[in-house]
Specification:
This protein is of the alpha/beta class. It has 11 helices and 10 strands. Bound molecules: adenosine-5'-diphosphate (ADP) and magnesium ion (MG). Keywords: ATP-binding, Cell inner membrane, Cell membrane, Membrane, Nucleotide-binding, Translocase, Transport.
Length: 279
């Protein structure tokens, strides 16, 4: 198991109305290169804070303690070396981490054609010419299986369904070839069938591009369908971490058991099938 990122003693505090809110408390966690890792927990447990800390997107009102060490192969080298510290918090940029939010409208520009938006990511980060970047955008629209990729290039976000918009947001997130894809409640605003399709899409793209996945959800069933390991958060603390089968089948913590019991009808086997639909 090679770590892609090693999070140590990470504490994040927000300052709000003159008082401090500790959103993450002394979290230590390795993200293994190439794994699909899910973060689950109730609303307010610190999942998004962890995602934002990893991506370097925390608001200026936050205070970060602890560190995140990255082990990315330098260009042209095979050895992995720590390249970023969170102690003096210098996060990686958008090239190495792709981020998908719950609301695709938050990451898509409503007045720009989607082909151009995806192409801009590739153009900015990959040093391509504009025609090359645009060709890459078209290829990505094919890969996310929009019905008519050629005309989708010129479509505006409002012309797409919610599921299609999220597909486009995912295409933009992976356009620069990130090592790590973070999906924070990326399916939570969608109905059940579309959720399963997006989960299947994420699974396929991650496999095709050899990305590491951090899948964040309050929905344990979806997390279990997609992830190899699950980390359970409560009140800003990591309470349990294990293989999906162990977390779902034999959780060590009463809190995890309670989360599972609250997830009506949870049964790991059909769930795994559910995510296999319609990538
Ligand atoms: N920008 C912010 N300013 C102040 N408090 C915040 C901010 N973002 C999140 N919080 C607080 O931090 C805690 C964790 O929130 P969050 O990471 O969004 O949890 P989750 O994603 O699991 O719902 C909550 O108490 C939330 O109210
Ligand atoms: Mg959240």
């Amino acid at each position: 198991m090679t770590a892609l990122a090693s999070i140590r003693d990470l504490t994040v505090t927000y300052r709000r109305d003159g008082s401090d809110v500790a959103a993450l408390k002394h979290v230590s966690l390795d993200i293994v290169a190439g794994e699909r890792l899910a973060i689950i927990g109730e609303s307010g447990s610190g999942k998004s804070t962890l995602a934002l800390a990893i991506a370097g997107l925390l608001p200026a009102s936050s205070r970060v303690e602890g560190r995140i060490d990255w082990f990315l192969p330098p260009l042209g080298a095979r050895d992995r070396q720590p390249s970023t510290l969170a102690g003096d918090y210098k996060p990686l940029g958008g090239r190495d981490i792709g981020f998908v939010f719950q609301d695709p409208s938050a990451s898509l520009d409503p007045v720009m054609a989607v082909g151009k938006q995806i192409a801009e990511v590739a153009y900015t980060h990959l040093g391509l010419t504009w025609p090359q970047a645009y060709a890459k955008a078209k290829n990505l629209l094919e890969r996310i299986r929009l019905p008519d990729p050629e005309s989708a290039l010129r479509a505006f976000p409002h012309q797409l369904s919610g599921g299609q918009k999220q597909r486009v947001a995912i295409a933009a997130a992976i356009a620069a070839g990130p090592k790590l894809l973070i999906a924070d409640e990326a399916t939570s605003a969608l109905d059940t069938i579309v959720q399963a399709e997006i989960v299947a899409l994420i699974r396929r793209l991650v496999a095709e591009d050899g990305m590491t996945l951090l899948f964040i959800s309050h929905d344990i069933a979806l997390a279990a369908a997609l992830a190899e390991r699950i980390a359970v958060f409560r009140h800003g603390k990591l309470v349990e971490l294990g293989e999906t089968a162990q977390i779902v089948g034999a959780p060590a913590q009463a809190y995890t058991r309670a989360l599972l019991d609250a997830d009506i009808g949870l049964d790991a086997a059909p769930l795994v099938g559910r995510a296999g639909l319609n990538a």
